[in-house]
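At this stage, I wrote out one protein's amino acid sequence and its backbone structure tokens, and that material follows here:
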Amino acid sequence: MKKIKKLALVTFSAFVIGAVFPYVNFAIDQTYQQLKIIVDVLELIKESYVDVIDSQKLVYGAAKGMVAELDDYSQFMEPDVYSRVKSDTEGEFGGIGIRVDMREGWLTVVTPLPNTPAWRAQLMPGDKITKIEGEDTKDIVIDILIKKLRGTPGTKVNITIAREPEDKNAEWITKDITLTRELIKAENVKWRMLDDKTGYIKIVEFTGHATENFNKAMAELKGKGMEALVLDLRYNPGGLLASAVDISKQFINSERMIVFTKGRKPENYQEFRSGSSAPYETMPLVVLVNRYSASASEIVAGAMQDNKRAVIIGERSFGKASVQSMIPLSDKSALRLTIAKYYTPSGKSIQHDLKNETGGITPDIAVKVTVENEKKLLQQSEEVYYPGKEEKAEKAGKADKAVKAEKAEKPEKEKVEKKKEEIRDEVLDRALELLKAREVLGNLKPGK
């Protein structure tokens, strides 16, 4: 009876508002009719369903269903889920060493981190983690899934992955994997010299310390004679907007636009611009992206491309450019809602549109790398970024003996052949060629 009175009150309120403001009458009537369907379904289930059902469960189910119609990043969280998402992980925690994102409702590997359990188990970018400890991951809040993968170092976690086959018409390959968690100390920025004039910086993720480490890398490379830079954002899932903007400011001057956000509400419009000058505003720059580059990495690539500050090489990026807001609700549940989208300085939407095949950052020079070559490049990159691996192993005792024993068994000829098997990074090679060509062309003096 109480619910019928409430329904009557809603109806009366809608009538009064419609009478005072006739131009909103139709919209209110439409919304009321749509809400009435939900109320009718709720009442029918409560009255006629074979088992007694908790009405709160039905309301939460309806809320989840509504939000699921929006996008991969908007989520309704029940009170216990929201509480877990808010709470910080206390003390030391272990993990399996992957960067992940939600793609098509599934927890998806963006990249495994070198020398981690996920790396050694040969997880690959694009692998979908379909189960954790036998439980489906489909459409579960990403924060909860990440916490399920974390735990005390030394404990095990069982996952099921699905991998897309080389033959697009074949079925996805599924595999059960048991991983032992370790303490993960991920580096967010890595750097080295490619030759005597060209520096290379790989930003793994735009974390809170990314700008600090990027500045350290630039100073060190400049000290080694760097005159041009390759900035590698491949497999970078994004991170903090502030880090992306701060790093972009290193290369763009004259208070130019870096990125802006826009939503339905005027207050969701926000601009992010460079400073009047930049420390590396004239340094030749090439940015590398691939289909796993997303969010903050796309903001940097888009800013460089639209401001004609760098050449972008690789594959079209993923296209994740949504701004979420966490909205607590009256019963301690919460709604994570997409309220705006990022746009490049020229006004292009970064957000991927599956229907129209738009979004992401389209490279100036497209270079496609096969899945097989991607796998080999990821495997051999460990040696590139972990020089002195044998010396580090020496400190570890057992690991040292294992490494030395393995090396003693391999003849010199086998070492040489293995070196020959290493494949070239086509995207990086193209970047180097471009920078060298620019230098050569810059030295030409027509008419002399």
